[in-house]
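Exercise 7.
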Amino acid sequence: MTINANEVKTKGVSLFSNLLDKFDELIINVRGKDKFVVLDIERYRELRANELDLAYIQTMQDIENKNYKTQTAKEHIAELADEL
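Solution. The predicted structure, written as C-alpha cells, is:
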C-alpha cells in the first residue's frame, strides 16, 4: 500500500496502525517518488532475522570453500587504508 507523505503529516502515525492491520507494509511516497517503507515491528524482526540467517549461511559456505584470507590486524588496517 502506498501513501502520500502529506497524509502522514495530516493524520499522524495513527495512520500507520490502521493501515498495518490490513497491509504487511506501507510505502510512503514523497513528491511522486517512493521513499520509505513502514513495517510492523514483528515483520521487521522477521525480515532482519532472515537477513542475518542468510549472511550466516553465506559465511559458512565461504569458510567451507576456503574463500577467505588470513592476515594480521595491521595488514587488515593497511588494506582498508589503501581502499580509502
